[in-house]
Design a protein that fits this description.
It is globular, with a radius of gyration of 18 Å. It is α/β, with parallel strands linked by helices. Helix 3 links the parallel strand 2 (59-62) and strand 3 (84-89). Helices cover 42% and strands 15% of the residues. The longest helix is centred in the last third of the chain and has 22 residues, at 196-217. The protein has ten helices and eight strands. The chain has an eight-stranded parallel sheet with strand order 7-6-5-4-3-2-1-8.
Amino acid sequence: MKPSLQTLLPLLASLSSPTAAYWKGFNLGANLPSGACKAQSDWETDFRTLQSLPGDFTSVRLYAASDCNTLANAVPAAIATNTQILVGLWAEDADHYNAEKQALLAAIQAHGHEWMIAVSVGSEDLYRGNTAPSTLAGQIYDVRGMISQASVGASSIQVGHVDTWTAWVNSANNEVITACDWVGTDGYPYYQDTAIADAYNVFWQSVENVRSMVNSVKPGVWVWITESGWPVSGGDMGAAVPSYSNAQMYWSSVACAAFQQAHTFWYTLQDYTSSPSFGVVDQNFNPVLNLQC
């Protein structure tokens, strides 16, 4: 049987240049700025936009499967544009979780699994404290079992969880690390009231703290950078000041370094109606930063 790219990634990391082995892309929501749900054509616009940016971006992280018919619309768009998806499933509320699972299962049954990078069961649930670690670990095992039976070869799809770095370094959550094939860490020096001059060191210290904890609990599990960014506009957070120049500095130092050493999904592609706003493209899908690395 032909090995999947997911199976080969650790080998590629040891044999190839760093940037050749890592997924890099953006976090994308399922709603338009108007609040309406994205149609397939909207997803295609998003995917073609990120592919047009400097840096060869061909992957995205999505937060949900069933909300706004996310996978029903996004997967055909991804296949049409050769985009790979890190699938997110909401884990809170039993009915919502079951709907998410069924939406993922339907997408695999309709389109196979080659469009998938991996699956994240939940997002920042431990940080919010709304789901017990044992419950979340059980859901990770549950989704892994479902995927392995859904399609020939789908057992190669890795299942993990995304949470804040502060949640991962809390030993009370080690059961979730044990359940994960990979760990996604979210870190925002902006929300830590950090001056832009100190943001690089603050961010990478958070990543190293997570790596250290994960390695002590389950050696060999990769830590992915699933969210970070710096706002171009919005309110100050202590010494952290949103601005285009600060966002540019953060991109050039943190993002460009992250793309060379970890699977990385930046926050975010477009959110110009939000405050604070982290988007790297404006309402016309034109870059607001120099995204060259």
